[in-house]
Design goal:
161 residues; globular; 5 helices; 73% helix; two-stranded antiparallel sheet
């Protein structure tokens, strides 16, 4: 019998895949790959640093032997949400709408993480707090969006030449 932690991790994988399939705009699949891989790089690196400095611990992991960080969160869930954040960003809306987008995504993800930290064995804060999660999500989402815009603009400029 599978424990609740592993069921949650498998559910996160399935939901992430479904979100990528059904929420990614069909005309932006290449861009989705770009954002997803960039966010994987950023979160994997930061995730390893956070775990190695004993700030967070992941007692239940799907891949126990590879790293002490959570493969599901760092390599699948966060990049999936970031891809949706970037590709569905309200580019032509008001500044308030954009600011709301920036607040909404880190907030609901932080709420879920805090719930998991209190209710499951998936994550354990050692020298970490919810506002570190919120701030790192905000920063990495912004960096991912800036990278995406820079890359796409450069690509469009080369196409015109």
């Amino acid at each position: 019998m599978m424990d609740s932690g592993r069921i949650i991790l498998i559910s996160v994988i399935v939901i992430s895949i479904l979100c990528l399939i059904f929420i990614t705009p069909r005309d932006k699949i290449r861009e989705a790959h770009l954002v997803f891989l960039f966010k994987q790089f950023v979160t994997w690196l930061l995730g390893i640093i956070v775990v190695e400095f004993h700030l967070i611990e992941y007692p239940v992991r799907i891949i126990q032997f590879a790293a002490k960080t959570s493969f599901v969160f760092e390599f699948i869930a966060y990049p999936t949400v970031c891809t949706i954040f970037v590709l569905r960003f309200p580019e032509h809306k008001s500044l308030w709408h954009k600011a709301g987008w920036y607040v909404l995504f880190p907030t609901w993800m932080t709420i879920l993480e805090v719930w998991m930290e209190h209710s499951t064995d998936l994550i354990r804060y050692i020298h970490w707090t919810w506002y570190f999660t919120w701030l790192t999500l905000l920063i990495t989402f912004h960096i991912s969006r800036v990278y995406y815009k820079w890359f796409i603009q450069g690509f469009r400029d080369r196409k015109k030449a």
